[in-house]
């Protein structure tokens, strides 16, 4: 694949910023883009007792084009390498970190190279190729995610206002990524999926429903196969803490810290309303789950076997409401935050 000549950022001495990764992240300003995140509220925007949305984990993420199902990929670590789409092979060049910046935008950084997505030559023109380049802080390296439909985002460059676009609406491996005015094509819509090496397996998480802020909880802290999963106010017990263990590309088993047993769709059912239980890990697709970012730091959690999602039964606000699987309808009882302990 051809690689652009060495790229020199104009005026780069003015663009360098002391961003200090260890500094606390300030509250980002409202950028005025509808449905974008992060999206601060100047007044309470959720009912009392429900935590506000948080930034998503930095990842890494798989960034997948809706039209082709292929993912953003860079095959080398050099400055100026063009970004393309390719089948997902779980390579480091296909995994990307979302690093929040003080102005509310993100730099999008390759796990392979540590370099950032960059609009070549600071261009404002349609058709300009996207490359990777060492991060210098220019607005051509700052991006915002704007929700366009459930689970899909347009990825907007701060400098140009144009979006990531698969050249020619191609579905082929190796098709280059460019910037273009947003036209609503599926080649401009992107899904973000937590990669299978996001966290070490020893890390544990609170997984909470957007609707209520209540956490996934094993009933009565049982250690028995078949114990049902419910929602409950988060108390911090190990029956409310979960480990995400990679099992295959883009999928995890979700293991209760107290028992080591995993979230399991009862009876390997593919039906709406099937209860979620804990069970010894046997490797079935009813025990494998994918996390897909849907909005404002929330995920839908999708069973591999059925394609259905974790759902609080009856959209109940109560402690003890059972967790089931259901077709994804986009309601808040199907959206979950993932917060590292």
Description:
With 341 residues, this protein is mainly beta. The chain folds into two domains: 142 residues, Trefoil (Trefoil (Acidic Fibroblast Growth Factor, subunit A)), CATH 2.80.10.50; 136 residues, Trefoil (Acidic Fibroblast Growth Factor, subunit A). The chain has one helix and 25 strands. Strands 1-9-10 form a three-stranded antiparallel sheet, with no helix packed on it. Strand 21 and strand 22 form a beta hairpin. The longest helix has 4 residues. The radius of gyration is 21 Å and the shape is elongated.
Q: Please give the count of helices.
A: 1
Strand order of the largest sheet: 1-9-10
Distance between the termini: 42 Å
Largest sheet, described in full?
A: 3 strands, antiparallel
> How would you classify the helix and strand content by structural class?
mainly beta
Mean pLDDT: 85
